[in-house]
Amino acid sequence: MTQAYTRYQQWLQKVTDPQIKQQLKQMDQQQIENCFYKELEFGTGGLRGIMGAGSNCLNTYTIIKATAGVATYMVQHGLHSVAITYDSRNNSQEFSNTTAQTLASYGLKVYITKECMPTPFVSFAIRHLGCDMGINVTASHNPKQYNGYKVYDSNGCQVLDEVANEITEHIGRADAFDIVVDSFDSYVQKGLICFIEPSVEEAYVQSVLAQGLGTAEGLSVAYSPLNGAGYRITPAVLRKCGLTQLDIVEQQSYPNGNFDTCPYPNPEKLEALTLVLELARQKQSDLVVANDPDCDRLGVAVKQGDKYVVLTGNEVGILLVDYILSTLSGQNKLPANPIVVKTIVTSVMVDAICNQYGAEVKDVLTGFKYIGNIINGLQAQGQTERYVFGFEESCGYLKGSYVRDKDGVVASMLVCQMAAHYKKLGLTLCDKLAQLYNQHGLYQQSLLSYKFEGADGAVKKQQLLDHLRANPLATLASNAVTSVEDLLGDTDLPKADVLIFRAEDGSKVIVRPSGTEPLIKCYLFVCGNAEDNKAKLAQITAQLDQLFGN
Hints:
Blueprint: H1 3-14, H2 18-25, H3 29-36, E1 47-50, H4 60-76, E2 81-86, H5 92-105, E3 109-112, H6 119-129, E4 133-137, E5 146-152, H7 161-173, H8 184-189, E6 193-195, H9 198-209, E7 220-224, H10 233-240, E8 245-248, H11 274-283, E9 287-291, E10 298-304, E11 307-311, H12 313-330, E12 339-343, H13 349-357, E13 360-364, H14 368-380, E14 387-392, E15 396-398, H15 408-424, H16 429-440, E16 443-451, H17 454-470, E17 475-476, E18 479-486, E19 499-503, E20 508-513, E21 519-527, H18 530-548
Parallel strand pairs: 2-3, 2-4, 3-6, 7-8, 7-9, 12-13, 12-14
Antiparallel strand pairs: 1-5, 4-5, 9-10, 10-11, 14-15, 16-21, 17-18, 18-19, 19-20, 20-21
Protein backbone atom coordinates (compact mmCIF):
# COMPACT_ATOMS: atom_id res chain seq x y z
CA MET A 1 0.00 0.00 0.00
CA THR A 2 1.49 3.36 -1.05
CA GLN A 3 1.72 6.38 1.22
CA ALA A 4 -0.73 8.14 -1.10
CA TYR A 5 -3.30 5.36 -0.68
CA THR A 6 -2.85 5.40 3.11
CA ARG A 7 -3.56 9.15 3.19
CA TYR A 8 -6.54 8.61 0.90
CA GLN A 9 -8.03 6.04 3.27
CA GLN A 10 -7.56 8.38 6.24
CA TRP A 11 -9.40 11.13 4.40
CA LEU A 12 -12.22 8.79 3.45
CA GLN A 13 -12.74 8.00 7.11
CA LYS A 14 -12.46 11.54 8.48
CA VAL A 15 -13.91 13.92 5.86
CA THR A 16 -17.38 15.23 6.68
CA ASP A 17 -17.80 17.72 3.82
CA PRO A 18 -20.24 15.96 1.44
CA GLN A 19 -18.80 17.45 -1.75
CA ILE A 20 -15.23 16.45 -0.92
CA LYS A 21 -16.45 13.04 0.27
CA GLN A 22 -18.11 12.48 -3.11
CA GLN A 23 -14.94 13.52 -4.97
CA LEU A 24 -12.93 11.04 -2.92
CA LYS A 25 -15.27 8.18 -3.74
CA GLN A 26 -15.02 8.90 -7.47
CA MET A 27 -11.20 8.89 -7.65
CA ASP A 28 -9.31 6.33 -9.70
CA GLN A 29 -5.83 5.07 -8.78
CA GLN A 30 -3.95 7.75 -10.77
CA GLN A 31 -6.04 10.54 -9.23
CA ILE A 32 -5.40 9.14 -5.75
CA GLU A 33 -1.66 9.14 -6.42
CA ASN A 34 -1.60 12.72 -7.76
CA CYS A 35 -3.87 14.13 -5.04
CA PHE A 36 -2.26 12.34 -2.09
CA TYR A 37 1.38 11.60 -2.94
CA LYS A 38 2.40 14.51 -0.69
CA GLU A 39 1.06 17.24 1.55
CA LEU A 40 0.50 20.52 -0.27
CA GLU A 41 3.76 22.38 0.37
CA PHE A 42 3.85 25.73 2.14
CA GLY A 43 6.82 27.24 0.36
CA THR A 44 8.30 30.72 0.39
CA GLY A 45 5.34 31.82 -1.76
CA GLY A 46 2.73 30.18 0.50
CA LEU A 47 0.36 27.55 -0.90
CA ARG A 48 -0.64 27.14 -4.55
CA GLY A 49 -2.51 24.15 -5.95
CA ILE A 50 -5.45 22.75 -7.87
CA MET A 51 -8.76 22.96 -6.01
CA GLY A 52 -10.27 19.64 -5.06
CA ALA A 53 -10.12 16.77 -2.59
CA GLY A 54 -6.75 15.56 -1.37
CA SER A 55 -3.75 16.48 0.76
CA ASN A 56 -1.98 17.93 -2.29
CA CYS A 57 -4.94 20.13 -3.32
CA LEU A 58 -6.60 23.33 -2.12
CA ASN A 59 -9.75 22.61 -0.12
CA THR A 60 -11.31 23.53 3.21
CA TYR A 61 -9.19 20.99 5.07
CA THR A 62 -5.83 22.06 3.66
CA ILE A 63 -6.83 25.68 4.32
CA ILE A 64 -7.64 24.85 7.95
CA LYS A 65 -4.36 22.94 8.32
CA ALA A 66 -2.30 25.83 6.92
CA THR A 67 -4.15 28.39 9.01
CA ALA A 68 -3.67 26.33 12.17
CA GLY A 69 0.06 26.48 11.48
CA VAL A 70 -0.05 30.25 11.01
CA ALA A 71 -2.17 30.66 14.16
CA THR A 72 0.20 28.52 16.26
CA TYR A 73 3.15 30.56 15.01
CA MET A 74 1.35 33.80 15.94
CA VAL A 75 0.38 32.62 19.42
CA GLN A 76 3.94 31.47 20.16
CA HIS A 77 5.31 34.85 19.06
CA GLY A 78 2.74 36.95 20.92
CA LEU A 79 1.03 38.23 17.75
CA HIS A 80 -2.64 39.12 17.87
CA SER A 81 -4.20 40.46 14.64
CA VAL A 82 -4.53 39.50 10.97
CA ALA A 83 -5.84 41.25 7.83
CA ILE A 84 -7.43 39.05 5.15
CA THR A 85 -8.55 39.55 1.58
CA TYR A 86 -9.09 37.35 -1.45
CA ASP A 87 -9.27 37.41 -5.26
CA SER A 88 -12.14 36.67 -7.64
CA ARG A 89 -11.58 32.92 -7.97
CA ASN A 90 -14.12 30.23 -7.23
CA ASN A 91 -14.02 29.35 -3.51
CA SER A 92 -11.77 32.30 -2.63
CA GLN A 93 -14.38 33.93 -0.39
CA GLU A 94 -15.23 30.58 1.21
CA PHE A 95 -11.55 29.84 1.84
CA SER A 96 -10.97 33.32 3.29
CA ASN A 97 -13.95 32.91 5.63
CA THR A 98 -12.61 29.50 6.72
CA THR A 99 -9.23 31.13 7.33
CA ALA A 100 -10.86 33.85 9.45
CA GLN A 101 -12.86 31.32 11.48
CA THR A 102 -9.79 29.18 12.13
CA LEU A 103 -7.73 32.17 13.27
CA ALA A 104 -10.56 33.36 15.49
CA SER A 105 -10.77 29.92 17.09
CA TYR A 106 -7.28 30.62 18.45
CA GLY A 107 -8.47 33.94 19.92
CA LEU A 108 -6.86 36.05 17.19
CA LYS A 109 -8.46 39.26 15.90
CA VAL A 110 -9.31 39.21 12.19
CA TYR A 111 -9.99 42.11 9.82
CA ILE A 112 -11.47 40.88 6.53
CA THR A 113 -12.72 42.56 3.34
CA LYS A 114 -16.37 42.27 2.35
CA GLU A 115 -15.47 41.52 -1.26
CA CYS A 116 -12.49 40.56 -3.41
CA MET A 117 -9.72 43.18 -3.49
CA PRO A 118 -6.38 43.65 -5.26
CA THR A 119 -3.52 41.75 -3.65
CA PRO A 120 -1.61 44.94 -2.72
CA PHE A 121 -4.60 46.02 -0.63
CA VAL A 122 -3.89 43.37 2.00
CA SER A 123 -0.32 44.70 2.28
CA PHE A 124 -1.71 48.22 2.69
CA ALA A 125 -4.39 47.13 5.20
CA ILE A 126 -1.80 45.38 7.39
CA ARG A 127 0.25 48.56 7.60
CA HIS A 128 -2.73 50.92 7.90
CA LEU A 129 -4.49 48.91 10.61
CA GLY A 130 -1.31 47.95 12.46
CA CYS A 131 -1.92 44.22 12.06
CA ASP A 132 0.68 41.64 12.98
CA MET A 133 0.16 39.50 9.88
CA GLY A 134 -1.95 39.18 6.75
CA ILE A 135 -3.34 36.44 4.52
CA ASN A 136 -4.49 36.62 0.92
CA VAL A 137 -6.43 33.81 -0.75
CA THR A 138 -5.30 33.99 -4.37
CA ALA A 139 -3.71 32.02 -7.18
CA SER A 140 -2.66 35.18 -9.02
CA HIS A 141 -2.69 34.46 -12.76
CA ASN A 142 -2.97 30.65 -12.69
CA PRO A 143 -5.76 28.85 -14.62
CA LYS A 144 -9.21 28.66 -13.04
CA GLN A 145 -8.74 25.27 -11.36
CA TYR A 146 -6.05 26.72 -9.07
CA ASN A 147 -6.20 28.65 -5.84
CA GLY A 148 -3.61 29.71 -3.29
CA TYR A 149 -2.79 31.20 0.08
CA LYS A 150 -0.17 33.89 0.77
CA VAL A 151 1.02 34.97 4.22
CA TYR A 152 2.33 38.45 5.06
CA ASP A 153 4.26 39.91 8.00
CA SER A 154 3.62 43.14 9.92
CA ASN A 155 5.46 45.18 7.26
CA GLY A 156 2.96 44.02 4.65
CA CYS A 157 5.65 41.90 3.00
CA GLN A 158 5.19 38.22 2.17
CA VAL A 159 6.96 36.26 4.87
CA LEU A 160 10.62 35.59 4.17
CA ASP A 161 12.27 32.18 4.24
CA GLU A 162 13.03 31.93 7.97
CA VAL A 163 9.45 32.70 9.00
CA ALA A 164 8.01 30.57 6.19
CA ASN A 165 10.11 27.63 7.35
CA GLU A 166 8.91 28.00 10.94
CA ILE A 167 5.28 28.23 9.81
CA THR A 168 5.85 25.13 7.68
CA GLU A 169 6.93 23.20 10.77
CA HIS A 170 3.75 24.21 12.61
CA ILE A 171 1.61 23.27 9.60
CA GLY A 172 3.28 19.86 9.50
CA ARG A 173 2.17 19.19 13.07
CA ALA A 174 -1.41 20.40 12.57
CA ASP A 175 -4.30 18.03 11.88
CA ALA A 176 -7.24 19.74 10.16
CA PHE A 177 -9.60 16.98 11.28
CA ASP A 178 -8.92 17.73 14.96
CA ILE A 179 -9.67 21.46 14.73
CA VAL A 180 -13.18 22.60 15.65
CA VAL A 181 -14.36 26.09 14.68
CA ASP A 182 -17.59 27.98 15.28
CA SER A 183 -19.58 29.74 12.57
CA PHE A 184 -18.34 32.91 10.89
CA ASP A 185 -21.26 34.93 12.29
CA SER A 186 -20.59 33.77 15.85
CA TYR A 187 -17.05 35.15 15.69
CA VAL A 188 -18.38 38.41 14.22
CA GLN A 189 -20.75 38.69 17.19
CA LYS A 190 -17.85 38.04 19.59
CA GLY A 191 -15.83 40.81 17.93
CA LEU A 192 -13.06 38.47 16.82
CA ILE A 193 -13.91 38.96 13.12
CA CYS A 194 -14.73 42.41 11.75
CA PHE A 195 -14.98 43.85 8.26
CA ILE A 196 -12.42 46.36 7.00
CA GLU A 197 -13.98 49.83 6.75
CA PRO A 198 -14.37 51.65 3.38
CA SER A 199 -12.07 54.39 4.72
CA VAL A 200 -9.13 51.97 4.42
CA GLU A 201 -9.86 51.48 0.71
CA GLU A 202 -10.02 55.25 0.23
CA ALA A 203 -6.67 55.67 2.02
CA TYR A 204 -5.20 53.03 -0.30
CA VAL A 205 -6.50 54.82 -3.40
CA GLN A 206 -5.05 58.13 -2.18
CA SER A 207 -1.70 56.44 -1.56
CA VAL A 208 -1.70 55.13 -5.13
CA LEU A 209 -2.62 58.53 -6.57
CA ALA A 210 0.21 60.12 -4.57
CA GLN A 211 2.67 58.12 -6.70
CA GLY A 212 1.50 59.81 -9.90
CA LEU A 213 3.95 61.74 -12.06
CA GLY A 214 1.57 63.61 -14.34
CA THR A 215 -1.80 63.30 -15.98
CA ALA A 216 -3.35 60.74 -18.29
CA GLU A 217 -5.34 63.42 -20.13
CA GLY A 218 -5.48 63.11 -23.90
CA LEU A 219 -4.97 59.34 -23.93
CA SER A 220 -7.48 56.70 -24.99
CA VAL A 221 -7.26 53.34 -23.21
CA ALA A 222 -8.85 49.90 -23.51
CA TYR A 223 -8.81 48.04 -20.19
CA SER A 224 -9.62 44.59 -18.84
CA PRO A 225 -9.50 43.34 -15.25
CA LEU A 226 -9.72 39.77 -16.67
CA ASN A 227 -12.73 39.12 -14.40
CA GLY A 228 -10.57 39.93 -11.42
CA ALA A 229 -10.28 41.97 -8.27
CA GLY A 230 -9.17 45.15 -10.05
CA TYR A 231 -12.57 45.62 -11.67
CA ARG A 232 -13.56 48.63 -9.53
CA ILE A 233 -10.39 50.22 -8.23
CA THR A 234 -8.20 50.37 -11.34
CA PRO A 235 -10.80 52.19 -13.49
CA ALA A 236 -11.55 54.57 -10.60
CA VAL A 237 -7.87 55.44 -10.20
CA LEU A 238 -7.37 55.91 -13.94
CA ARG A 239 -10.29 58.31 -14.11
CA LYS A 240 -9.03 60.22 -11.07
CA CYS A 241 -5.69 60.81 -12.81
CA GLY A 242 -7.34 62.47 -15.80
CA LEU A 243 -8.22 59.60 -18.13
CA THR A 244 -11.54 60.36 -19.83
CA GLN A 245 -11.41 57.90 -22.76
CA LEU A 246 -11.53 54.54 -20.95
CA ASP A 247 -13.26 51.54 -22.52
CA ILE A 248 -13.59 48.30 -20.53
CA VAL A 249 -14.17 44.79 -21.92
CA GLU A 250 -17.77 44.10 -20.91
CA GLN A 251 -17.46 40.29 -20.65
CA GLN A 252 -14.44 40.66 -18.32
CA SER A 253 -15.57 43.71 -16.34
CA TYR A 254 -16.81 41.85 -13.23
CA PRO A 255 -15.43 39.12 -10.93
CA ASN A 256 -15.91 35.63 -12.36
CA GLY A 257 -13.80 32.72 -11.18
CA ASN A 258 -14.68 30.63 -14.23
CA PHE A 259 -12.75 33.02 -16.51
CA ASP A 260 -15.07 31.94 -19.35
CA THR A 261 -13.49 34.20 -21.96
CA CYS A 262 -9.90 33.78 -20.75
CA PRO A 263 -8.99 30.28 -19.48
CA TYR A 264 -5.42 31.29 -18.59
CA PRO A 265 -5.79 34.82 -17.16
CA ASN A 266 -2.11 35.75 -17.28
CA PRO A 267 -1.50 39.20 -18.82
CA GLU A 268 2.00 38.05 -19.77
CA LYS A 269 0.35 35.83 -22.41
CA LEU A 270 -1.00 37.17 -25.69
CA GLU A 271 -4.11 34.97 -25.55
CA ALA A 272 -5.19 36.62 -22.29
CA LEU A 273 -5.36 39.96 -24.11
CA THR A 274 -7.52 38.74 -27.03
CA LEU A 275 -10.75 40.55 -26.09
CA VAL A 276 -9.15 43.76 -24.87
CA LEU A 277 -7.13 43.96 -28.09
CA GLU A 278 -10.35 43.49 -30.08
CA LEU A 279 -11.93 46.34 -28.12
CA ALA A 280 -8.88 48.53 -28.67
CA ARG A 281 -9.07 47.96 -32.44
CA GLN A 282 -12.76 48.88 -32.45
CA LYS A 283 -12.15 52.06 -30.48
CA GLN A 284 -8.69 52.79 -31.98
CA SER A 285 -7.34 53.15 -28.44
CA ASP A 286 -3.80 54.45 -27.93
CA LEU A 287 -3.06 51.92 -25.21
CA VAL A 288 -4.18 48.57 -23.86
CA VAL A 289 -3.81 47.67 -20.17
CA ALA A 290 -4.95 44.53 -18.35
CA ASN A 291 -4.61 43.35 -14.76
CA ASP A 292 -4.46 39.71 -13.69
CA PRO A 293 -7.24 38.32 -11.42
CA ASP A 294 -5.62 39.49 -8.17
CA CYS A 295 -4.58 42.81 -9.74
CA ASP A 296 -0.91 42.79 -8.82
CA ARG A 297 0.37 42.46 -12.40
CA LEU A 298 -0.08 44.45 -15.59
CA GLY A 299 -0.13 43.56 -19.28
CA VAL A 300 0.40 46.36 -21.82
CA ALA A 301 -0.04 46.75 -25.59
CA VAL A 302 0.61 49.85 -27.68
CA LYS A 303 -0.99 51.11 -30.90
CA GLN A 304 1.86 51.42 -33.37
CA GLY A 305 0.59 52.48 -36.77
CA ASP A 306 -2.26 50.15 -37.67
CA LYS A 307 -1.10 47.36 -35.33
CA TYR A 308 -0.97 46.70 -31.59
CA VAL A 309 2.37 45.67 -30.14
CA VAL A 310 2.28 43.69 -26.89
CA LEU A 311 5.13 44.71 -24.60
CA THR A 312 6.94 42.25 -22.36
CA GLY A 313 7.21 42.76 -18.62
CA ASN A 314 10.85 43.71 -19.11
CA GLU A 315 10.01 46.29 -21.78
CA VAL A 316 7.35 47.93 -19.60
CA GLY A 317 9.78 47.93 -16.65
CA ILE A 318 12.58 49.44 -18.73
CA LEU A 319 10.25 52.20 -19.92
CA LEU A 320 9.01 52.89 -16.38
CA VAL A 321 12.53 52.99 -14.91
CA ASP A 322 13.58 55.59 -17.48
CA TYR A 323 10.32 57.57 -17.20
CA ILE A 324 10.39 57.69 -13.40
CA LEU A 325 14.08 58.58 -13.12
CA SER A 326 13.95 61.19 -15.90
CA THR A 327 10.73 62.78 -14.59
CA LEU A 328 11.90 62.94 -10.98
CA SER A 329 15.25 64.32 -12.14
CA GLY A 330 13.52 66.95 -14.30
CA GLN A 331 11.33 67.96 -11.34
CA ASN A 332 14.35 68.08 -9.01
CA LYS A 333 12.66 65.38 -6.92
CA LEU A 334 15.11 62.54 -7.49
CA PRO A 335 16.44 61.58 -4.04
CA ALA A 336 20.13 61.44 -3.27
CA ASN A 337 21.53 57.96 -3.93
CA PRO A 338 18.33 56.57 -5.49
CA ILE A 339 17.77 52.82 -5.56
CA VAL A 340 16.01 50.67 -8.15
CA VAL A 341 15.38 47.03 -7.24
CA LYS A 342 14.92 44.16 -9.68
CA THR A 343 14.95 40.39 -9.57
CA ILE A 344 17.90 38.41 -10.93
CA VAL A 345 15.81 37.19 -13.89
CA THR A 346 14.95 40.75 -14.96
CA SER A 347 16.63 42.65 -17.81
CA VAL A 348 20.17 43.91 -17.18
CA MET A 349 19.33 46.90 -19.38
CA VAL A 350 18.03 48.44 -16.17
CA ASP A 351 21.63 48.78 -14.99
CA ALA A 352 22.56 50.85 -18.05
CA ILE A 353 19.60 53.21 -17.59
CA CYS A 354 20.20 53.61 -13.86
CA ASN A 355 23.87 54.38 -14.45
CA GLN A 356 22.80 57.40 -16.51
CA TYR A 357 20.95 58.85 -13.52
CA GLY A 358 23.36 57.79 -10.79
CA ALA A 359 20.87 55.28 -9.39
CA GLU A 360 22.01 52.13 -7.63
CA VAL A 361 20.56 48.79 -8.79
CA LYS A 362 19.93 46.05 -6.26
CA ASP A 363 19.34 42.50 -7.54
CA VAL A 364 17.24 40.09 -5.48
CA LEU A 365 15.86 36.58 -5.83
CA THR A 366 12.65 35.96 -7.77
CA GLY A 367 9.66 36.93 -5.65
CA PHE A 368 8.44 40.43 -4.89
CA LYS A 369 8.85 39.88 -1.16
CA TYR A 370 12.59 40.27 -1.66
CA ILE A 371 11.99 43.69 -3.23
CA GLY A 372 9.73 44.52 -0.30
CA ASN A 373 12.45 43.46 2.09
CA ILE A 374 14.87 45.95 0.51
CA ILE A 375 12.33 48.68 1.31
CA ASN A 376 12.10 47.32 4.87
CA GLY A 377 15.87 47.62 5.21
CA LEU A 378 15.85 51.19 3.94
CA GLN A 379 13.03 52.05 6.35
CA ALA A 380 15.04 50.64 9.25
CA GLN A 381 17.86 53.01 8.27
CA GLY A 382 15.52 55.99 7.89
CA GLN A 383 16.19 56.04 4.13
CA THR A 384 12.87 54.89 2.65
CA GLU A 385 12.88 57.83 0.23
CA ARG A 386 15.87 56.31 -1.59
CA TYR A 387 13.61 53.57 -2.98
CA VAL A 388 12.44 54.80 -6.37
CA PHE A 389 11.08 51.74 -8.16
CA GLY A 390 11.07 47.96 -8.13
CA PHE A 391 9.99 45.42 -10.70
CA GLU A 392 10.20 41.85 -11.92
CA GLU A 393 10.04 40.62 -15.50
CA SER A 394 6.75 38.80 -14.85
CA CYS A 395 4.82 42.10 -15.10
CA GLY A 396 5.03 43.12 -11.42
CA TYR A 397 5.84 46.77 -10.55
CA LEU A 398 5.87 49.08 -7.54
CA LYS A 399 6.60 52.78 -7.11
CA GLY A 400 6.36 54.02 -3.53
CA SER A 401 6.63 52.39 -0.12
CA TYR A 402 2.94 52.45 0.89
CA VAL A 403 2.87 48.65 0.32
CA ARG A 404 5.48 45.90 0.17
CA ASP A 405 4.08 43.99 -2.80
CA LYS A 406 3.70 44.57 -6.51
CA ASP A 407 0.70 46.68 -7.39
CA GLY A 408 -1.21 46.44 -10.67
CA VAL A 409 -3.22 49.55 -9.81
CA VAL A 410 -0.28 51.92 -9.47
CA ALA A 411 1.38 50.28 -12.48
CA SER A 412 -1.75 50.91 -14.59
CA MET A 413 -1.77 54.56 -13.56
CA LEU A 414 1.93 55.13 -14.22
CA VAL A 415 1.86 53.45 -17.64
CA CYS A 416 -1.11 55.59 -18.68
CA GLN A 417 0.57 58.76 -17.44
CA MET A 418 3.78 57.76 -19.22
CA ALA A 419 1.98 57.04 -22.50
CA ALA A 420 0.09 60.36 -22.28
CA HIS A 421 3.38 62.19 -21.64
CA TYR A 422 5.09 60.71 -24.69
CA LYS A 423 1.96 61.18 -26.84
CA LYS A 424 2.25 64.92 -26.24
CA LEU A 425 5.81 64.65 -27.59
CA GLY A 426 4.61 62.78 -30.66
CA LEU A 427 5.93 59.42 -29.48
CA THR A 428 4.38 56.06 -28.68
CA LEU A 429 5.84 53.79 -26.02
CA CYS A 430 7.29 51.68 -28.84
CA ASP A 431 9.03 54.78 -30.24
CA LYS A 432 10.47 55.58 -26.82
CA LEU A 433 11.63 52.00 -26.33
CA ALA A 434 13.44 52.13 -29.68
CA GLN A 435 15.18 55.32 -28.55
CA LEU A 436 16.34 53.60 -25.37
CA TYR A 437 17.66 50.62 -27.34
CA ASN A 438 19.58 52.96 -29.62
CA GLN A 439 21.02 54.72 -26.60
CA HIS A 440 21.89 51.75 -24.37
CA GLY A 441 22.04 48.69 -26.64
CA LEU A 442 19.55 46.09 -27.85
CA TYR A 443 19.04 43.96 -24.74
CA GLN A 444 16.64 41.11 -25.42
CA GLN A 445 15.29 38.29 -23.31
CA SER A 446 13.18 35.17 -23.68
CA LEU A 447 11.38 32.94 -21.18
CA LEU A 448 10.91 29.21 -21.72
CA SER A 449 8.64 27.13 -19.47
CA TYR A 450 8.61 23.33 -19.34
CA LYS A 451 5.66 21.63 -17.61
CA PHE A 452 5.93 18.57 -15.31
CA GLU A 453 2.54 17.75 -13.81
CA GLY A 454 1.53 15.18 -11.22
CA ALA A 455 3.61 12.86 -9.07
CA ASP A 456 5.62 11.45 -11.98
CA GLY A 457 6.24 14.93 -13.34
CA ALA A 458 7.58 16.16 -9.99
CA VAL A 459 10.10 13.30 -9.94
CA LYS A 460 11.18 13.91 -13.53
CA LYS A 461 11.54 17.66 -12.92
CA GLN A 462 13.91 17.06 -10.01
CA GLN A 463 15.89 14.47 -11.97
CA LEU A 464 16.43 16.92 -14.83
CA LEU A 465 17.59 19.68 -12.48
CA ASP A 466 19.95 17.27 -10.72
CA HIS A 467 21.35 16.17 -14.10
CA LEU A 468 21.96 19.79 -15.13
CA ARG A 469 23.85 20.44 -11.89
CA ALA A 470 26.03 17.41 -12.49
CA ASN A 471 26.45 18.17 -16.21
CA PRO A 472 26.34 21.97 -16.63
CA LEU A 473 25.98 23.65 -20.01
CA ALA A 474 29.36 24.07 -21.73
CA THR A 475 28.14 26.54 -24.35
CA LEU A 476 25.33 29.02 -24.95
CA ALA A 477 24.70 28.96 -28.70
CA SER A 478 28.29 28.69 -29.98
CA ASN A 479 29.86 30.68 -27.14
CA ALA A 480 31.76 29.01 -24.32
CA VAL A 481 30.23 29.19 -20.84
CA THR A 482 32.75 31.04 -18.65
CA SER A 483 30.97 30.76 -15.30
CA VAL A 484 28.32 28.63 -13.61
CA GLU A 485 26.72 29.93 -10.41
CA ASP A 486 24.63 27.63 -8.23
CA LEU A 487 22.57 29.56 -5.69
CA LEU A 488 22.32 26.46 -3.52
CA GLY A 489 26.06 26.89 -2.93
CA ASP A 490 28.08 29.85 -1.66
CA THR A 491 26.45 33.07 -2.82
CA ASP A 492 25.70 36.60 -1.65
CA LEU A 493 22.00 35.89 -2.22
CA PRO A 494 19.84 33.62 -0.04
CA LYS A 495 20.12 29.96 -1.02
CA ALA A 496 17.77 29.05 -3.85
CA ASP A 497 17.31 26.32 -6.42
CA VAL A 498 18.74 28.46 -9.23
CA LEU A 499 21.52 27.89 -11.78
CA ILE A 500 23.10 30.80 -13.69
CA PHE A 501 25.21 30.24 -16.83
CA ARG A 502 27.24 33.10 -18.33
CA ALA A 503 28.96 32.93 -21.72
CA GLU A 504 32.00 34.75 -23.07
CA ASP A 505 29.89 36.99 -25.34
CA GLY A 506 27.77 38.25 -22.42
CA SER A 507 24.83 35.91 -23.03
CA LYS A 508 23.23 34.43 -19.92
CA VAL A 509 20.77 31.68 -19.01
CA ILE A 510 19.06 31.28 -15.62
CA VAL A 511 17.28 28.00 -14.79
CA ARG A 512 14.91 27.61 -11.84
CA PRO A 513 11.84 25.57 -10.85
CA SER A 514 8.70 27.66 -10.44
CA GLY A 515 7.59 28.08 -6.85
CA THR A 516 3.90 28.24 -7.79
CA GLU A 517 3.44 26.00 -10.85
CA PRO A 518 4.79 22.57 -11.95
CA LEU A 519 7.34 24.21 -14.26
CA ILE A 520 11.03 24.54 -14.94
CA LYS A 521 11.59 28.12 -16.08
CA CYS A 522 14.56 29.19 -18.21
CA TYR A 523 15.43 32.86 -18.72
CA LEU A 524 17.58 33.73 -21.76
CA PHE A 525 19.53 37.01 -22.00
CA VAL A 526 21.38 38.38 -25.04
CA CYS A 527 22.61 41.79 -26.20
CA GLY A 528 23.75 42.59 -29.74
CA ASN A 529 22.23 43.50 -33.08
CA ALA A 530 18.76 42.22 -33.92
CA GLU A 531 19.93 39.48 -36.29
CA ASP A 532 22.56 38.09 -33.91
CA ASN A 533 20.15 38.21 -30.96
CA LYS A 534 17.51 36.28 -32.90
CA ALA A 535 20.00 33.60 -33.92
CA LYS A 536 21.44 33.21 -30.42
CA LEU A 537 18.01 32.97 -28.78
CA ALA A 538 16.96 30.31 -31.30
CA GLN A 539 20.13 28.26 -30.71
CA ILE A 540 19.89 28.47 -26.93
CA THR A 541 16.19 27.58 -27.09
CA ALA A 542 17.04 24.45 -29.10
CA GLN A 543 19.64 23.47 -26.48
CA LEU A 544 17.14 23.81 -23.64
CA ASP A 545 14.35 22.07 -25.57
CA GLN A 546 16.66 19.09 -25.94
CA LEU A 547 17.33 19.10 -22.18
CA PHE A 548 13.83 19.72 -20.83
CA GLY A 549 11.38 19.02 -23.65
CA ASN A 550 8.98 16.19 -22.88
